[in-house]
Write a structure and sequence with these properties.
The protein is an all-alpha fold. The chain is built from eleven helices and no strands. The protein is globular. The protein starts with a helix and ends in a 19-residue tail after the last helix.
Amino acid sequence: MEFLLQCWEYVRHLDVHLETLMREYQFMTYFILAAIVFCETGLVVTPFLPGDSLLFAAGAITAKTGILNVWWLMLILLVASILGDNVNFFLGSRLGKKAFDRDFWFIKKSYLERTQRFYERHGGKTVVLARFIPILRTFAPFVAGIGAMPYRRFIGFSLLASLLWVPSFTLAGYFFGQLPFVKSNFELIIVGVILVSVVPIAVEWLRHRNRKIDDSQVLPIGGPFEE
């Protein structure tokens, strides 16, 4: 619990921490931010890392300090996002159905099954849609690999998802982050970005709150993607 509270405090004051990071590490900040994005999209053990809020805050602080170039920032984060997706996809394809056998210390079976049901409703578009939803963003490429989605199909959706996700939040922060209202309420804006991001999860939870999921309703792994 203490760890989660520390993470929350860090995210609340993301602008302060990012500005300190940029001023201290200068050019290396590109790669520090890229590493965070890579881990959030590429490693199933780190779904708790900031995504949408990090991109927004990075764009805003880039505009404020001028230390980084926003176009280079977006390019590097795009590459990190795509590489993360690919690593996650191949991890899923290598582990296969074993990942659904039981809970692990770093990943719960219920998260994977929830992501799989999302795939069953939305198909390959899930790679794009899930990019804007915390937790699902981390597990979607992994489940796509488990489900044997053809790689050529996956990479197309992955490229589209990254091209929509990284520029939209980074440029929103860059162009709107220095508005007087946003600057004076930056903490609330960051919290708002997080809340908007988790709305789909809340809606999904409410829809299934009183509905017991029958195992027979979950398609076999690989079913949605077999051609």
